Amino acid sequence: MTEPREGIEQVSSKFGITPEDYMLPARTEIHMLDINGKLHPAGEQGVEPGHEYPLPSPKVLVDAYEQLVIGRRVNDQNSALVRQGRMAVYPSSHGQEAAQVAAALCLGENDWMFPTYRDTVAVMAKGVAPMEVMAGFRGDWHSGYDPKKYKVSIQSTPLTTQLLHAVGVAHAAKLRGEDTVVLAMCGDGATSEGDFHEALNFAAVFNVPVIFFVQNNQYAISVPLSAQSVAPSLAHKAVGYGMAGERVDGNDLIALLAVLRRAVRLAREGNGPLLVEAHTYRMQAHTNADDATRYREDAEVQAWIAKDPVARMRSYLLDAGLLPDATEARITASAEAVAQTLRDGMNSENTPDPTDLFAHVFSTPTTQLTEQAAMLADELAREEETR
Amino acid sequence: MSATATTSSAANGNVSAATAAAAARTATTGTQPVTFAKALNTALADSMDSTDSVLVFGEDVGILGGVFRITDGLTKRFGTNRCFDTPLAESGIVGMAIGMAMNGMRPVIEMQFDAFAYPAFEQIASHVAKMHNRTKGKMPLPLVIRIPYAGGIGGVEHHCDSSESYYAHTPGLKVFTPATVADAYLMLREAIDSPDPVIFMEPKKLYWTKEQVDLEALRISHETAAVPPTEGRAAIARTGTDATLIAYGPSVSTAMAAAEAAALEGRSLEVIDVRTIVPLDDATICASVRKTGRAVVIAEAPGFASVSSEIVARIQERCFHSLAAPVLRVTGFDTPYPAPKLEKYYLPSVDRILDAVDALQWEEKA
């Protein structure tokens, strides 16, 4: 087993830089597209030694764009369903879809993802059936999909606790000699939590292949990043743990794919964990229960809307001749099909089975739970009689 | 964590003696004096030997063998991939164990002391306890969190908490606490085999107690399922007819001593060792109380809103018409665990138990 410190020396020497330079993020965030969807000149795309990122292939970009369009449609459809009273809450990632899509598409079939409550689009992009994801939001149960089947953990509501689970999954795979990579997601506010620190430190000490992917959307509900951290960037936190950090334009799908795909490759090759910070923006409120006008100016929101990830990517693909009408029509249709699935699923009546309350607390219910289940069954039977 | 696990030099002396004795015995054959610590150590080794996915990790559990030497020799025998030290962070240890259990391992992790497990509480309450339920059983978490707990060793502050009620109150956690050397072996093996997460609470004052035990016979009986499981099965540690003492973990030996003393005064006390707090064996407890008509519940933890209050409530709900007297309790006071020179005033004692038994309205029996 390579010692973590030796590993950093080996990989940094491959890039011809010092371990410290390898661990530090690029001097400015990596971006490839400007806000109008034009490719930056090659000399401005991330050219520092150790921070060079080649353009992904056209197929990768068009496939990712399809997921991007679906992701935007999922966010907006779900927000509409909340307004129609079909579910109590949906934390939308509107504006963050590029980061969501890249997080899923950088992974291989056997790789795991650990999402948060705001990462529904990423979960669907990794292949989880839409209505299995939505069961949690519909209120049927706390989660609706099988984490083992999809290699996607359930969406975490507590902040950063899931990063440690990601470290454990990667550690177990490493002990068995498997080359599984795990991508663990959190937000900017979550980097203040103690488990963020413990997870990054454990991952680095045990030299396990975890990508910590921080979507810095500038707000933790109402509290801006400036009240969470005064680090030069969140990506700079990596160096304190002895791992590489990188920062990327989180509304630039091409840059995100380039950075995350390389991070996954480096991790899979045994170079240890990496931290990637994506600069993006939560364009809408925290949830429908929140009022973002109480804590931020409209001008700020408008400036970010101008950097919308979907419009930028579409402009690029059109200019590059990669989005003929037929392709665009197909993509629009597949997004509409997912939206239809969501509408049909959320509008159908579904009554969860009350006996499930007791069935899954343990692998076999205890005597006490069996007694309580009988009590509820009796209560329901009496209600039925009086009806 | 503090290097001064205990302030009592006598206790430290016992640790060394026990370790030396353990090292001198590489294989047990036949019945011989075995410490509680050796029984736990052997259970870990036997589980690791029988199941490759069993991993042991925590603070100082590697080459040192743990501050109480419960993991002594495991790194040497099974290698650093199977028994290893972690960075000093309890939430990290539990959180990583969750991920390992999600991915096919059976981690057995050590929290160095009761009060040092509190940083891991969110991981335990929000994830260890709930993963099976929230995934409708699709993601079981077979892991064991070993916690040395309770006092009676002259320990420094934050080293003697009785924290079992926090875990017992959290649906989804099983809570085991052995009181005998044989149970230390059998219950730990059962906990490691369990498909559910188990909080395994080890009364640290018992680590150096010795009993005549045949560990090899216990191993064979466990592996051939020749003994009934301990989970959900309280033990009748002593039979009696006049009143029932109900205790668990560190309080069982105190209850046994009280029953011995009461016998000299002509009073026959039954002693129930709860063994697994979750799941609780209502049937055995209630059968005994219905027989004797009187009960005292004994626990080191502060009595307020505790496992002891739960047991009393359940007895009143189920055995009211069999009771000749209110069910009483002898518990720790509702104070933080005291400094070493004051712990004798805090801990349930034989005298305090006998006083409680005397108060069970005997005059009305005749």
TrEMBL record, chain A:
Cofactors (names): thiamine diphosphate
InterPro entries membership: Alpha-ketoacid_DH_E1_comp, DH_E1, THDP-binding
Annotated ranges, domain Dehydrogenase E1 component: 69-337
Known EC number: 1.2.4.4
Coiled coil: none
UniProt-listed Pfam families: E1_dh
PANTHER family listed in its UniProt record: 2-OXOISOVALERATE DEHYDROGENASE SUBUNIT ALPHA, MITOCHONDRIAL
The name this protein goes by in its record: 2-oxoisovalerate dehydrogenase subunit alpha
Automatic annotation (TrEMBL), chain B:
The keyword Transport is assigned to this record: no
Provenance organism: Paeniglutamicibacter terrestris
InterPro entries in the record: THDP-binding (IPR029061), Transketo_C/PFOR_II (IPR009014), Transketolase-like_Pyr-bd (IPR005475), Transketolase_C (IPR033248)
Cofactor(s) this protein requires: thiamine diphosphate
Protein's name according to its UniProt entry: Alpha-ketoacid dehydrogenase subunit beta
SMART domains: Transket_pyr
Transketolase-like pyrimidine-binding domain ranges (all copies): 34-209
Keywords: Oxidoreductase, Thiamine pyrophosphate
UniProt xrefs under PANTHER family: PYRUVATE DEHYDROGENASE E1 COMPONENT BETA SUBUNIT, PYRUVATE DEHYDROGENASE E1 COMPONENT SUBUNIT BETA
